[in-house]
Amino acid sequence: MNTYNLTRRNFVKTAALGSAAVASFNILGAQTNNGLNTSKLKVGVIGCGGRSGGDVWQVRKACEILGIEPEFVAIADPFADRVKAFAEKHQIDPAVGHVGFDAYHKVAESDAELVLMATPPNFRPLHMEACLNADKHLFVQKPVAVDPVGARKVMELGELADHKGLSIGVGTQRRSDKKYREQKAKIDQGAIGEIVGGSIYWNGQVPWISPRQPGQSDADYITRNWLNFVELSGDHIAEQHVHQFDIARWYLGRNPISFMGMGGRARRETGNQFDFFAVDCDYGDGIHVQSQCRQISGCYNRVGETFRGVDGYTNGMKVVGKEVSIDPIEQEFDDGNIQQQVELIRAIRTDKPINGAQEIAEASLAAIGGRMSAYTGKFIRWVDLTENKKSPFYSMEMSPRPIDFERGEVVLPEEVPAIQGEAKEIRIKT
User: Fold this and answer.
1) What are the φ and ψ backbone dihedral angles of 200, each rounded to 5 degrees?
2) Contact criterion met (CB below 8 Å) for 357 and 365
């Protein structure tokens, strides 16, 4: 997380940017560099965990490249110990820390220009709305929802950002990765011909668990152990595997039309998620993408994608097919984690907004649709999640909801998984 690819090309570009940092001032007195407003960037952070720590580091590197000084003016988390540790680790003034499930309001009310969001996914729609209403630009980690209601809400918030001229960057860093961009360009130029199918994978192990401590409230326990509860994470098919659903959507240029999934649980020690999923995603015209993800230790791990075309195939970053010519992919860093921050900050400072809300909401919803089919054993269509209000799946919303944490109304869900053929999804708010 705290490394980046400093190739010779990157070094030369970074050095050039540094030497060009003899900034000028426009007629209004704003510091500029080649048309880029390089005045100090004020940043807020909602969620003081490991992922947001990576985002902070990457924003600092992006600002360094662009000749901008970042200033962290507000950070928030439900827990005081996490705020304190985060501030110390990332050299942020602890006085700008705010604690509580309602602390995100303090970040929205601050003078932050850009807000980084890396809370558990179920909180994202609520926090995004508060910050967009306060005219903040956003960087939002994936996924952006855990249920259809939340995903559609993020789509609406993307429209609000467009209306306000605000940027929303999202944590699908593969779209900013040089190798992925080169592969996509080759596919677009016909290297493998029309895509006729594919497979996507995220097979690994449970990243971490946080066992319940004596005297811990339901709200505190589920929040600290959020990675293992579907109500907060969306299950690992959404929390991790959303990256591959996003790549499939990007390469094919459309969303799946239906899902038929299965899965189960064998070893998980805490929470209520599945250990493994297998989902057949139908993209229409006879094109199917097989999704496979697993969190079980001691097994073969694989994370990636492969696609078959009429004239060839991809295997990882390898493209086997016709020779094609593509334009050079010019960017500051090969690593998409930093490059996405460079592009977001540049968009903010040049008043040329970018907005990834729709693409990440749809990628999240694809993963959610696969999960819902696996939990219930039902055939689920994309329109059942997005348009068909008569579908029982359309209005499904996880409980506890984000607002329940602020209101002190959290009741811990059972730590048992869904049972296929019996589940109506799982613990739906009525």
Assistant:
1) -130, 145
2) no
Q: What are residue 318's DSSP bridge partners?
A: 315
What percent of the chain has a predicted confidence (pLDDT) above 70?
Answer: 91
**Residue 4: which pLDDT band, with cuts at 50, 70 and 90?**
very low
At a CB cut-off of 8 Å and minimum separation 6, what does 258 contact?
Answer: 281, 282, 379, 380, 381, 382
- The answer to whether residues 295 and 234 touch, using CB atoms and an 8 Å cutoff, is no
Pairing of strands 168-170, 137-140: parallel
Are 185 and 327 in contact, with CB atoms under 8 Å apart? yes
Tell me how far apart the alpha carbons of residues 78 and 59 are, in angstroms, rounded to a whole number: 23
Q: Are β-strands 380-381 and 258-264 bridged in parallel, bridged antiparallel, or unpaired? A: antiparallel
Q: Dihedral sign, CA of 55, 60, 63, 64?
A: negative
Assigned token pair, 341: 């921050």
DSSP-H helix ranges across 80-235:
80-89, 104-109, 124-133, 148-164, 178-188, 218-224, 230-233
Contact 244, 279 (CB under 8 A): no
What predicted TM-score, i.e. pTM, was given to this entire model? 0.92
- Written as six digits, the tokens of 71 are 């200033």
Distance between CA 305 and CA 243 in Å, rounded?
10
Sign of CA dihedral 296, 299, 305, 309: negative
In the predicted structure, residue 69 carries a pLDDT above the cut 60: yes
- pLDDT at residue 31, as a whole number: 72
3-class secondary structure, 315: strand
339-383 pLDDT per residue, tens: 999 999 999 999 999 999 999 999 999 999 999 999 999 999 999
Calpha distance 115→380 (Å, rounded): 35
Cα–Cα distance, 168 to 31 (Å, whole number): 24
Residue 425: pLDDT band by 50, 70, 90 thresholds?
A: low
Mean pLDDT, the chain, rounded, equals: 92
Kindly tell me if the per-residue pLDDT of 30 is higher than 90: no
